[in-house]
Amino acid sequence: MRPAETADSMSRLGTAGQNLTTSWSSARTSIAALEGRLGNGQLGAAFMGRYRPGAEQAARTVARWVAQLTDLARGGSQAVDGYVGTDRAVEQDIGRLP
User: CA-to-CA distance for 93 and 96, rounded, in angstroms?
Assistant: First the structure.
């Protein structure tokens, strides 16, 4: 592992995840506002009856993907910390050998 490079990559991934979280939240707000205009009248109600289940499932799936990106960055950063800590501990142990 190249700890410095990996830590930098995880930091950038975390920033991308945070930006994506913010963007998705904003998009969901816009989508909800537009959806609120639909479903009026007989044809609109029929459309929404078929549209809503798929749209809700898609929104849940995207929300999970967005969260996974942030989780991946956090886990990657923890892996780097663990790797560096273990490497230092082993280096100290080897230094104590006769």
Answer: 5
Instruction: Tell me how far apart the 2 most distant CA atoms of the chain are, in Å.
Output: 86
What pLDDT, in 10s, does the model give residues 19-35?
Answer: 999 999 999 999 999 98
Question: H helices within the chain, ranges in order?
Answer: 3-35, 41-95
Tokens 């609109």 identify what position? 44
- What region, left, alpha or beta, does residue 52 occupy, with left being phi > 0 and alpha being psi -120 to 50 degrees? alpha
What gap in Å lies between CA 94 and CA 27, rounded to an integer? 54
Task: Tell me the pTM.
Answer: 0.77
